[in-house]
Amino acid sequence: MADGFQFAFTPEIERVTAPAWEKVKAHVTPMEWRLHAPLIAEINRLKRQKNAVILAHNYMTPEIFHGVGDYVGDSLGLAKEAARSDAAVIIQAGVHFMAETSKILSPDKRVLIPDLRAGCSLASSITGADVRLIKQRYPGLPVVTYVNTTADVKAETDICCTSANAVQVVEEAARQWGVDRVILIPDEFLARNVARQTEVKIIAWQGRCEVHERFNRDDILELRAAYPNAEILAHPECPTEVIELSDFTGSTAAMNDYVLTRKPKQVVLITECSMADNVAGDAPETEFVRPCNLCPHMKRISLENIYEALLHDRYEVTVDPAIAARARLAVQRMIDLPPPAAPARYDLVKARHHVAVELI
Ligand code: 13P
Ligand code: SF4
């Protein structure tokens, strides 16, 4: 139980939290809501008092996403919001690399993460020292780094990317450096999936997202057989065999846009579990088939520890200023690119061809 707080579900709290309840009531029971709602109301009061903003990733649970998130979205959207926000405090409802990215972009703000253990298997797959060795091995080639990395790794990087803009960043890096090969680290599957959508040759690292790597070809074939009319959307951190059998691949924000724009009758989101719950709150006409894998790191963030983070100003995320300055160049280069073009027809995002990548 969050310390110092009285959990009374009063009529006034019921009234102020009613809009969030409307979004989550398909996935949260009334009994749970009577526990969540007082915390939501108190978190929203403390935010105003402390001039704090909550940046919540699409994988947060629905009561966080719809109840207290001031800005919700994918990694690219959260990074842009961190750069433009004028709040004094950023609470990162997401994982540690996202909080570091916010600090890199907003060094004068206090950046807090409710649980310092909220890591990421991709971020822990590579170090700055690894990147220095890669650069020695491939001199003259640009290093494109997924934002799912530590500040130390970003500091060794030429330009960052997210799953929303990886193809665009790779092509831009090849153009600016005047080369036909680009190093894209650390997610092997993202690299393989980008390679299928560009003529630029890709050199990849063997990092994996522990959540998305668990989906496989048989999962998709079984879904196709059981739900022949469902549209299947997969995150680009999934294995290539999964992407090949899906109807669309895109970042969490792109999947959200797909559902809200195309309004499919039935959809499957091949990604983290909370994603479907959150999109469903805004897409009442779509039926969601829900195979999913939980991200144990994202799931460390709760309403209780967000409340405690605000109350006690914890846990502050800091980045060595010299590392932050170098990392900022790589993140800012990405942010300064024009927004990735929205696909005219989403299904055209399917790959042009299957291409081998060079593994480091
Ligand atoms: P998005 O950038 O698509 O939100 O993905 C972040 C992430 O961690 C996916 O696993
Ligand atoms: Fe990292 Fe995968 Fe979790 Fe995203 S879902 S934070 S990539 S482990």
Question: What labels describe this entry?
Answer:
single chain, 360 residues, alpha/beta, Rossmann fold, 4-stranded parallel beta sheet, 13 strands, binds 1,3-dihydroxyacetonephosphate, binds iron/sulfur cluster
Offer a quick outline of the entry:
By secondary structure, the protein is of the alpha/beta class.
Tertiary shape = globular
Number of domains: 3
CATH topological fold name of the largest domain: Rossmann fold
In quaternary terms, these chains amount to single chain
For the termini, the CA-CA separation is 47 Å
Helix-strand topology string: HHHEHEHEHEHEHEHEHEHEHEHEHEHHE
Radius of gyration, in Å, reads: 20 Å
Helix content percent band: 40-55%
The number of distinct helices, counting runs of at least 4 residues, comes to 16
| Strand arrangement across the biggest beta sheet | 6-5-7-8-13
> Structural class, from secondary structure content?
alpha/beta
Query: Which residue ranges are poorly predicted, with pLDDT under 50 across at least 5 consecutive positions?
Result: 344-349
Regarding CATH, which class of the largest domain?
Alpha Beta
CATH superfamily of the largest domain: NadA-like
Mean pLDDT, rounded to whole units?
93
CATH architecture of the largest domain: 3-Layer(aba) Sandwich
Strand content: 5-15%
Number of strands: 13
Bound molecules: 1,3-dihydroxyacetonephosphate, iron/sulfur cluster
The biggest beta sheet is recorded as: 5 strands, parallel
